């Protein structure tokens, strides 16, 4: 019997493609965000509101993942930005190769911001790097405030927590401070915004975060390019 | 399932370096923050090797705890119950140094008995 050390990542191939994508995004000055949540937490609604708010000429594109149907892409196409649906046909997460394939006929020089809506799932998407600059996790107030503790990985790996559907707070026994505290237990540096896509509450804070990220991303790219 | 598949792909790739041997066990290191359910991984792994050339391959799982290093006193410690406070100086300025691993650690290979390689069953 001979034991040989392997010392490599299990998702080596995915990580390799993700690193290539990240380098391409850097080269073209694109901020890429990966949105992850349970099904029905409001990722698509948040993106609808976001696209609605952004200026018409903004250089934004969206990739949206689901197991079946073009429904989300159809919802998001109304805003006249480039949108592509990725149907995984059963796979519960997006992987870097799917992103690479669906970007193939877009000219990255035309983009500054790429929003990727992952398949609704709090577990597997957290393992697959898509080359994004940051993960954004969405948690709605109709879920449990202990979700960050039950599914720590995605909260651990995300830069921003969007607490969604806050218009429902008067009707549900959701302790929003406990949810924020739980998220910060898992990830002390977690930034948090509270939004309602229905009333528009908190959208300003979310758009501020996005704007700041876009600004912070730009000089970094120029620095590395020079 | 995707993770199990990636493990088996890596084993097959690695085995091309050991002609005349077969793999007995593959060791995987999983951090407690990696969002990998051990039972689910084992179930998928066993289903995928069934009735293949890797049917006898065993899966070894080593779970790695979340570890932090204190930014103030440099103490390294295991984080339990999400309490990331330094046990030595009580600082909250601690940074995660491990716990989200999803790595292949080792492969155990055995040489075929002489005469069995390529031998045809009668």
Fold blueprint:
The complex is a heterodimer of chains A (about 230) and B (about 120).
Chain A: E1 2-9, H1 12-27, E2 31-37, H2 43-53, E3 60-66, H3 71-77, E4 83-87, H4 96-103, E5 113-117, E6 134-140, H5 147-150, H6 152-157, E7 160-164, H7 176-186, E8 191-194, H8 203-225
Parallel strand pairs in A: 2-5, 2-6, 3-4, 3-5, 6-7, 7-8
Chain B: H1 2-15, E1 21-31, H2 38-49, E2 58-64, E3 67-70, E4 76-78, E5 94-98, E6 102-111
Parallel strand pairs in B: 1-2
Antiparallel strand pairs in B: 1-6, 3-4, 3-5
Structural notes for this entry:
The complex is a heterodimer of chains A (226) and B (122). Chain A has 226 residues and is of the alpha/beta class. Chain A has a domain at 14-141 and 203-221: Rossmann fold (3-Layer(aba) Sandwich), CATH 3.40.50.300. Chain A is 38% helix and 21% strand. Chain A contains eight helices and eight strands, in the order E-H-E-H-E-H-E-H-E-E-H-H-E-H-E-H. Chain A is globular and about 60 Å long. The N and C termini of chain A lie far apart (53 Å). Chain B is α+β, with helices and mostly antiparallel strands. Chain B has a domain at 2-65 and 98-109: hypothetical protein PF0899 fold (2-Layer Sandwich). Chain B contains two helices and six strands; from the N terminus they run H-E-H-E-E-E-E-E. Chain B has a three-stranded mixed sheet, with helices on one face. Chain B has a three-stranded antiparallel sheet with strand order 4-3-5, with no helix packed on it. In chain B, strand 3 and strand 4 (76-78) form a beta hairpin. The two termini of chain B are 37 Å apart. The mean pLDDT of chain B is 90.
């Amino acid at each position: 019997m001979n034991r040989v050390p392997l010392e490599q990542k299990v998702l080596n191939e995915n990580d390799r493609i993700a690193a290539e994508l990240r380098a391409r995004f850097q080269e073209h000055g694109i901020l890429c965000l990966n949105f992850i949540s349970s099904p029905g937490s409001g990722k698509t609604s948040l993106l609808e509101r976001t696209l609605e708010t952004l200026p018409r000429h903004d250089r934004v594109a969206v990739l949206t993942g689901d197991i079946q149907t073009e429904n989300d892409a159809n919802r998001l196409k109304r805003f006249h930005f480039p949108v592509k649906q990725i149907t995984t046909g059963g796979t519960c997460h997006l992987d870097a190769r799917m992103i690479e394939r669906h970007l193939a006929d877009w000219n990255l020089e035309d983009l500054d911001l790429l929003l990727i809506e992952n398949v609704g799932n709090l577990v597997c998407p957290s393992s697959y790097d898509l080359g994004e600059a940051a993960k954004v996790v969405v948690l709605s107030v109709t879920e449990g405030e202990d979700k960050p503790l039950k599914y720590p990985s995605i909260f651990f790996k995300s830069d921003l927590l969007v607490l969604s559907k806050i218009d429902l707070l008067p009707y549900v026994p959701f302790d929003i401070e406990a949810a924020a505290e739980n998220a910060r237990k898992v990830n002390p540096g977690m930034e948090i915004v509270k939004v309602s896509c229905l009333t528009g509450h908190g959208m300003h804070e979310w758009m501020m975060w996005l704007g700041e990220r876009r600004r912070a991303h730009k000089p970094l790219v120029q620095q590395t390019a020079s | 399932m995707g993770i199990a598949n990636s493990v088996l792909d890596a084993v097959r790739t690695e085995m091309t370096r050991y002609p005349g041997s077969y793999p007995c066990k593959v060791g995987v290191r999983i951090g407690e923050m990696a969002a990998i359910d051990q039972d689910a991984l084992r179930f998928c792994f066993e289903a995928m090797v069934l009735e293949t050339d890797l049917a006898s391959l065993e899966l070894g799982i080593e779970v790695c705890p979340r570890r932090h290093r204190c930014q103030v006193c440099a103490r390294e410690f295991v984080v339990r119950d999400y309490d990331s406070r330094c046990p030595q100086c009580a600082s909250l300025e601690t940074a995660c140094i491990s716990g989200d691993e999803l790595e292949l650690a080792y492969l155990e290979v055995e040489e075929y008995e002489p005469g069995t390689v390529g031998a045809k069953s009668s």
